[in-house]
Specification:
Layout (H helix, E strand, L loop, with lengths): L2 H24 L2 H8 L3 H7 L3 H25 L4 H13 L12 H9 L4 H27 L9 H22 L3 H15 L4
Length: 196
């Protein structure tokens, strides 16, 4: 990695939690300089503008979640166990530093839906990827006779994502995990109920 690449990576790693916590509008150039200890000129020498930093920070935050989930999902071969990774992870989100400020998809989608088309597009792509991943796990489970044949993969994916993000939002807004735990226990029962 070149020195420039190292500096860019450093900026992204230092600002990713900031953007996930404060959002795009709430993160100022002074915040970015403070988080990195770098001058405005140095930051703009590596990124064209704040938008580029925000997009790179979203990608970084999102990739941390994706890599964590992939690792845990690949640790088991059974489709039901793979789907249970989702409620198990989100129920215990406080264990993962990159989730403590909230889900990067939810945070970004909420803020950028009407204000920042590029961030909105990134969040939309992330949701589409997540939905497709769940659908594929369900299809795989049906093919392997681990999940009931009449299960609708699209329905399961939409319900899972909606429950996770809705419960996560409640946890962040109320500073309580009670509702999140209730929702994840319900989701677990729903997933276990899919067994063939």
């Amino acid at each position: 990695m070149s020195k420039s690449d190292n500096t860019k990576q450093f900026i992204v790693e230092q600002t990713a939690p900031l953007f996930n916590t404060k959002g795009y509008a709430g993160t100022s150039m002074n915040d970015i300089m403070s988080a990195t200890g770098l001058s405005k000129g140095c930051i703009y020498g590596n990124f064209e503008n704040k938008d580029e930093v925000a997009l790179a920070a979203f990608d970084h935050n999102y990739n941390l979640v994706v890599e964590h989930m992939k690792t845990r999902i690949r640790a088991t071969d059974n489709a039901i166990e793979r789907l249970l990774v989702y409620p198990n992870t989100y129920r215990n989100y406080f264990r993962y530093p990159y989730l403590q400020a909230g889900c990067p998809i939810l945070n970004t989608a909420t803020e950028a839906d009407d204000t920042h088309p590029l961030l909105k597009e990134r969040a939309q792509q992330a949701v589409d990827f997540w939905r497709t991943s769940i659908e594929n796990q369900v299809k795989r489970g049906i093919e392997r006779k681990e999940i009931k044949a009449d299960t609708d993969p699209v329905e399961i994916a939409v319900i899972m994502i909606s429950m996770i993000e809705g419960a996560f939002m409640q946890a962040k807004v109320t500073n309580r995990t009670k509702e999140l735990k209730i929702a994840m226990e319900f989701l677990e029962k729903m997933i276990v109920g899919l067994k063939a």
